[in-house]
Amino acid sequence: MAPLTTLLYALSITSALGSSVSESSKPFSQEFRDNYSVLKHYGGNGPYSERRSYGIDRDPPASCAVDQVIMIKRHGERYPSPSLGAGIEKTLSKLDPKTKYQGDLAFFNDWSYYVPNKCLYNAETSSGPYAGLLDGYTHGTEYRARYGHLWDGDAIVPMWSSGYGRVIETARKFGEGFFGYNYSTNAALNIISESESMGANSLTPVCYANRDSATCDGLSNTMPQFKVAAERLNAQNPGLDLNATDVYYLMSMASFELNARASSKWIDVFTQDEWVSFGYVHDLNYYYCAGPGDKSMSAVGSVYANASLTLLNEGPQKTNPLFFNFAHDTNITPILAALGLLTPEEDLPLDRIPFGNPYSTGDIVPQGGHFTIERLSCDKTAISDAGSYVRLVLNEAVVPFHQCTSGPGYSCPLEEYTTIVKGRLPDFVGQCKVPHKDPKSLNFWWKYNSTTELNYRNGSVPCQEAEAQR
């Protein structure tokens, strides 16, 4: 058949089948493109998003049932901190509301700052689809559906929160979601002080001795791409004098705006390259200031890791099946460092973005991020023995524990998990030089209050307080 004849024949077939081809859909998409979402490049500023997973089923394997859960959750979405807010307000002062802006800033004259009162700085948000209080409540309802079988509907279940206002409110909303109508009678919120004098008996332990903070102290909050963004906005609007630091504050402002509003026009002001760079700035800060890039952080995280190891080996029969804890982002990253999860083979470079970097903050500690340890009771299968296994879940994605994946659903046998963790945990008391008078171990999981008096705040609620009434 001649080439032209072949082409005409092909076109006729295509025309004849066109309606059926266009009306049918493929059961599996063949498109795996840039895997980009701005939510993954907000650092720890923006709304919660689930971790990008390894494709391991979140539900327990068919041969297993979860019999114990130990979770630590970051507070829900919030407004910026006062210090960040001051930087944002200083940058906004460069933008004259009487000027008619052009280009990427054309929307500015119809835009208003989303923090109506300075006393809201640091507070959890209560408006918009990504509101922090909604995050806590929704998470509670989801975990009731997932782990409700571990509560008999009658027992009083303790929960633990660090003593910071927004963290406590997240714990309360989570409790309302999990326990429903029974929250007022069956949850017992315990508030653990964030004071340094709590030593190891804390959800927020600190290490002021032998801090490995040289790199952290020298980090910059700008990248070359921020200068490009400033030059572009200045060129579009003659007379505007933004610099790279201003761009950092504007991008920070955009990332927090979604915590309080349904959308942010500031997101489209900046390019994908600029957002990727912004996210990496935060990766560096978490890695070197609150993660494995600071060697003392493993010691800090060992407090929680070691205590949870005791719970897992005691099992739900001796202790409790549910351990819900609430703290901050920088209390979760040391735990991951202590367990050796997501630690890069080499320190993160300061002069370039290493694509494929496992230490991507948007996947680790977004607002409302959480780390869950599951104890599984499993039956014997063709490839595994009956017994207890451990699964680690970060932001609802199963994270295999090092090379220990021989259990069902790539879990780790509890005995092997115990050996690995014990072999790698540093000594918090010795390395951080905990004063003799301060507690040397975490014991509030065993010595807790069963009263419900802290489940709700008493009295009026001011605009914002750093430390909640105890």
UniProtKB/TrEMBL annotation:
<feature type="disulfide bond">
    <location>
        <begin position="404"/>
        <end position="412"/>
    </location>
</feature>
<protein>
    <recommendedName>
        <fullName>3-phytase</fullName>
        <ecNumber>3.1.3.8</ecNumber>
    </recommendedName>
</protein>
<dbReference type="Pfam" id="PF00328">
    <property type="entry name" value="His_Phos_2"/>
</dbReference>
<feature type="disulfide bond">
    <location>
        <begin position="64"/>
        <end position="378"/>
    </location>
</feature>
<dbReference type="InterPro" id="IPR016274">
    <property type="entry name" value="Histidine_acid_Pase_euk"/>
</dbReference>
<dbReference type="GO" id="GO:0009277">
    <property type="term" value="C:fungal-type cell wall"/>
</dbReference>
<dbReference type="InterPro" id="IPR033379">
    <property type="entry name" value="Acid_Pase_AS"/>
</dbReference>
<dbReference type="InterPro" id="IPR029033">
    <property type="entry name" value="His_PPase_superfam"/>
</dbReference>
<dbReference type="GO" id="GO:0003993">
    <property type="term" value="F:acid phosphatase activity"/>
</dbReference>
<dbReference type="GO" id="GO:0016158">
    <property type="term" value="F:inositol hexakisphosphate 3-phosphatase activity"/>
</dbReference>
<keyword id="KW-0325">Glycoprotein</keyword>
<comment type="similarity">
    <text>Belongs to the histidine acid phosphatase family.</text>
</comment>
<feature type="active site" description="Proton donor">
    <location>
        <position position="329"/>
    </location>
</feature>
<keyword id="KW-1015">Disulfide bond</keyword>
<feature type="signal peptide">
    <location>
        <begin position="1"/>
        <end position="18"/>
    </location>
</feature>
<dbReference type="InterPro" id="IPR000560">
    <property type="entry name" value="His_Pase_clade-2"/>
</dbReference>
<keyword id="KW-0378">Hydrolase</keyword>
<keyword id="KW-0732">Signal</keyword>
<feature type="active site" description="Nucleophile">
    <location>
        <position position="75"/>
    </location>
</feature>
